[in-house]
Amino acid sequence: xxxxxxxxxxxxxxxxxxxxxxxxxxxxxxxxxxxxxxxxxxxxxxxxxxxxxxxxxxxxxxxxxxxxxxxxxxxxxxxxxxxxxxxxxxxxxxxxxxxxxxxxx
Length: 105
Fold this sequence. Notes:
This protein is mainly alpha-helical and 105 residues long. The chain folds into two domains: 43 residues; 36 residues, no CATH class. The chain contains four helices and two strands. It has a two-stranded antiparallel sheet. α1 packs across α2. The chain is elongated, with a radius of gyration of 22 Å.
């Protein structure tokens, strides 16, 4: 049995888009510098006056993951549970950055 139901739909009208509210070309050097200093995404957004979700969406869309290089395969990228700073942990069970470990230890 053949499908006899065919409809022709008109081409969709072009969607109106508004210009971007954030000039990412001007902000990316500052974002890169803050992330290389070890600031987390939340701290980077706070320092630049951006919404955290806006920055996360931009980084995810452009596949910008981690700015902290790792030297050995057993190192893990983490955000500190106390101060939310990004750091490279020497083992998978370390959850506090070295400064917070020194403060609590």
